[in-house]
Design brief:
- The complex is a heterodimer of chains A (about 130) and B (about 160).
- Chain A has helices at about 1-20, 35-55, 55-85, 90-125.
- Chain A is mainly alpha-helical.
- Chain A has one domain.
- In chain A, helix 1 (about 1-20) crosses helix 3 (about 55-85) and helix 2 packs across helix 3.
- Chain B is about 25% helix and about 45% strand.
- In chain B, a hairpin with a 7-residue loop joins strand 7 and strand 8.
- Classes of the chains: A mainly alpha (about 130), B alpha+beta (about 160).
Chain lengths: ~130, ~160
């Protein structure tokens, strides 16, 4: 169970870092940014690690869903931070940005993350002694 | 083996947290800096009828912790409800360092006919003001942010 928590938490943060640095809107505010050529293999690797590290597969599937949801939540919190701490005069815009960018993140990296998870789970099942 | 696997995931989590904290810090600092500057008027000599130019010195205070670039400042000079001159895009990009104040001298080319008309129609207490637009950019920004400017410049 501790492995499940550790992997889910760690990969949520890793995927969130990929989402946040990929977010086009954030490019105006930070020097850290990545392109799709890093996001896609990064999300795929996160999926593989998640699927491979957790057994049984049912638990791995739950972890995959939690990692994706956690990463998107962290991304939306980071983008919405200026609204949450009343830094900007137009907080609603930042909440809207957070929603939009979360959807973009979900659709752009979600499939690759899921594919990686399935591959990781399959490899793990193959290697498992019968 | 179990230890190394756990250590790997802990390291991944720590590295990701570092990136998230760094990006959030840059993001908030840039947003704050783009709101922490103030414009003021440091000097203005009221132009008389027949003058071809007016001289105006603006003051910009950058209260943020980042150096900001100001560019494409275009200023219109108004008397009451009439535009009497403008700067005609002769502004060169100016960097204002963090926590500092810069003075920006501007030369406004006047439209003599408009100026005479405005002076003739103005009451004894004249209301001079400027309007304009400019762009500001912070170090991390790949785009400029456009702002509007409106200041009373009564001498």
């Amino acid at each position: 169970m501790s492995r499940f928590v550790l992997v889910t938490l760690s990969l949520s943060l890793a995927l969130a870092a990929l989402f946040v640095t990929f977010t086009p809107f954030m490019r105006d505010f930070t020097g850290f940014h990545i392109g799709a050529e890093v996001l896609v293999p990064g999300a795929f690797t996160c999926g593989v690690l998640c699927g491979f590290s957790i057994i049984p597969p049912r638990l791995a599937l739950i972890s995959l869903a939690l990692v994706l949801a956690g990463a998107l939540l962290i991304q939306s919190i980071v983008i919405g931070l200026p609204a949450l701490i009343n830094l900007v005069p137009n907080p609603v815009s930042y909440v809207n940005f957070a929603e939009q960018q979360t959807l973009i993140g979900c659709f752009s990296a979600g499939p690759f993350f899921a594919a990686g998870g399935v591959l990781g789970g399959l490899v793990r099942a193959r290697l498992r002694p019968k | 083996m179990r230890f190394f696997v756990n250590a790997f995931f802990v390291l991944v989590g720590l590295a990701s947290t570092f990136v998230l904290v760094h990006v959030s810090g840059d993001y908030l600092a840039t947003l704050a800096s783009l709101q922490e500057f103030r414009w003021g008027v440091a000097g203005f000599a009221e132009p008389q009828a027949g003058a071809s130019e007016a001289h105006l010195t603006l003051e910009v205070q950058n209260r943020s912790g980042l150096d900001l670039d100001f560019k494409d400042l275009e200023v219109y000079l108004w008397l009451q409800d009439k535009t009497v001159g403008k700067t005609y895009g002769r502004f060169e990009t100016r960097t204002v360092s963090a926590h500092s104040t810069a003075h920006i001298p501007l030369t406004i080319l006047l439209d003599d006919a408009q100026l005479r008309e405005a002076l003739a129609g103005a009451p004894a207490e004249r209301a001079w003001f400027i309007t304009g637009t400019y762009k500001a950019s912070a170090p991390f920004a790949s785009n400029d942010f456009t702002y509007g400017l409106r200041l009373d410049v009564n001498p």
